[in-house]
Amino acid sequence: MSTHAVLEWRDGLPYSTAFDDVYFSASPDHPQHGLAETRYVFLQHNQLQQRWQQLATDRPSHFVIVETGFGSGLNFLAALQLWRQTAPPHAHLHFVSVEIAPFTLQDLQTAHAHFPELAEVSQALCQQYRLLQPGINQIELPAFSTSLTLHIGDSTQILPQLNLKADAWFLDGFAPAKNPQMWQPYLFECMARCAHSGTTFATFTSAGLVKRGLQSAGFAVNKTRGFGHKREMLWGQWPETSQPPLLTTPRIAVIGAGIAGCSSAWFLANLGCQVELFEREAYIANGASGNPRGMLYPRLNAEKPLNDQLAWRSYSFSLRHYANLDLGNDGFQVCGLMQLGGSPRELKRVQKVAARYADLGLLQKLDAEQASVQAGVSLAHDSLFFEQGAWVNPTSACTRMLDHKNISLHVNHEVTSLVQQASGWQLQMNDAKLSEHFDAVIVCNAADANKLLPDSGMWLNPVRGQMGMIAAQPSMSMLKTILCGDGYLTPQHNGVHAMGATFAPGDHGTDIREEDNIGNLDMVSRLSADFNAAKNAEITFARASLRCGSPDYLPYVGAVLPTERLKLHVAPIEKHTELPSPQGLYAHVAHGSKGLMTAPFCAAILARRLLTDFGHSLPQLTEDTFWHGLHPQRHLFKQLGWQSLMQPFSDKVPT
Length: 655
Fold this sequence. Notes:
- The protein is of the alpha/beta class.
- It folds into 3 domains: 7-237, Rossmann fold (3-Layer(aba) Sandwich), CATH 3.40.50; 251-256 and 397-458 and 552-646, FAD/NAD(P)-binding domain (3-Layer(bba) Sandwich); 297-392 and 460-549, D-Amino Acid Oxidase, Chain A, domain 2 (2-Layer Sandwich), CATH 3.30.9.10.
- The strands form 6 sheets. Strands 16, 17, 18, 24, 25, 26, 27, 28 and 29 form a 9-stranded mixed sheet that branches.
């Protein structure tokens, strides 16, 4: 990423060269000065300890903090530490921060070393602080019941689009004299739009323009003694009006225990929802999610903006997610991945992708010699190298996600139909019995989704794929990275390599076929001149399954609206806000061959949107245009002529 903060370290302290100011102070006389100021200004004057101690102890609750200027992350760490000490176990902290130039990981760790009492929370953050990209970055810290939503970019572009209700604001950009662009009316207008009864704010500055801006927006503003040598600071709140409604957390049924269903259940459970997961087979991950290896890498094409952005956002998110699950060396390994330009078409794609995305820091373009050195075997073509490319054991990931107190798993339960009642939804099983009522249902059963949602308009394309495991070969022993060409090959692990997978659209068979084994071995032999003997390798395991995709290679994620009501509209619907309200029915399917990468990200954004539909105004993980591009009924909208609903996602390259 090319937009990191450029720092000067003076006497061990970080100074911004862009704003000519220090991020915090930690002088020998006051070694905790920066942390003490954070606690005094932001924690104390937002009354966080008292407010968190008063959160409900018998039901899930959410607390949202919005910060201007993440900087060294000191405010976040101090808040996280206090949250862990005072908040009840059912509460979830959402910390949203806007930063135009984030620290590098090394600079972050150097800054945190000044505050050893924050070592535990610093380590938790730093383990997840990687692969940050312009736009929205989500860092989950489930051990702390905390989510960090870090917006990287210009606050003048980000804050006007912010859609949430904040409980507290940390106004902590550089001083108005140093950073006048931030302290403008758009900031105060955003604060007012995102306020509710009792929303508080605190800031180190007492500048008149800040006081007047807050007052003009509607906040009650107080001035008090500043910290240390600073004479005064401001704090205050949005006026108390009516008591906010007591929100309930929906009870949710998820159908299908593959990677999409398990991810949906996990992210909802982390937000306090009670989730019942129904699987028709006797075990989880029985479809494509049951392969012993799955590759994590973004296949970019530099031509379809939404597809590419889903790919690279999911890539960084899923790598953090699987690392968070602590799956061990047998469940998850980051070993790097090489995409080979082995044909004229692929070479052209490699060149286009490198030209468009290399500056993001996700990939490198290597010539054949460089690629060979990196991979450890002879490669004949230019390639894209993803240093953080990885493989994961899908069953291990699904098993770990379902080990959650808020998730109940029901195997051997085939759902045959969905019955809408006034009080919610019931599931009809293959024994004709009806389930209890649920507030919401998420259909995650891949190609079978249309059996439950026959009028949704989703086009689902099952594709057969067969993968295999081959015994370690001397000629492959030097392979250090995953290779991807017509298929993939992983480095040796526990005496075997994983290879695959065939691609057979329209074929619904899951039997093991010798011709597919031969085809996979032939594919491996073409990856490198060193692998000529691979055609005679021993296959120790093979598995075939169906991957479910869509015509535009995007998953279907979101609310399924009543088709009859949509078709009855005489006038075209121009905005998503004019669509019928969600009825508690959602789809999360059609990830194709990239479900291990895209499903966790889509599950996380779906969980936030679903809770928002039930009145919880939580921070969102994508822009509305991005979210609408994944709509399960997007093809139906086009058939009805509602082109304005499907406005193209921006093709601007993030910078």
